Amino acid sequence: MWIDINAYTGHWPFMQLKYNTCEALLNRMNTYGVDISVISNLNGIFYKNTQSANLELYNEIRSNRRFGDRFIPFAVINPIYAGWQKDMEECKNKLGMKGIRLYPKYHDYDITDPALVELAKRARDMDMVMAFNFRMVDSRQRSWMDIDYVVGTPKKEWTLKNIFPIMKAVPDAKYMILNVANGLDLNKEDNASFKKMNVLMDTSGRTLTDLGSLLRSYGTDKFAFGTHSPILDYLTGQLRIAALRENEAGEAVKSLLRSGNARKMLKL
């Protein structure tokens, strides 16, 4: 069984996307043997009112009975937008969303903003997963209208150090770290804390090229299959698991990476 914890529907203003509807994504899943995908709506990154995007996704999933069993929706929430608490409650209790995707860079708030800390505590109490991205797209290909990823040097794309402060503030919440494209280094104390947290990193990002070593360093319970589709290609995340040697990961560990760790976090 394969569960993709990092996929999207919707549009990206600065590039043409394919397979960015539930119908097209489901066909792709069937082609490559993926059973379930965790999805959110890219439009929520750009709408001022992210709830409009969440309702779009909800209605799209409800439009075909095949979608309900194959897609797990995550809401996009902006904790500095008025009424986000009500939106979060509606997404959980009415729309059946199991998690939240957060975009501090795009929605222009700090990782330690009190509103985000409040959201993290609410997510913990509501048993909702919080998902953060190292980056959405490669900053070298950015449009002049996109957010300012790079100002001279060094590059401003996130590393784990940029995300860890919110995890440290609310260590008993559930986290997904997606498109791990840059460094995972933490100081010794923070690294020890990170290993104790309920967190999954997906296999789509370029930093996971040596997945075997990362499994030894962080543990087999910290990784799960993800594609970052339709922005990245669909197969890389699968190949990184399939290419693991027997001395790096036996079949039991590969099963955890393909679906077991995701099933546990999502309570499937």
Automatic annotation (TrEMBL):
Record protein name field: Amidohydrolase
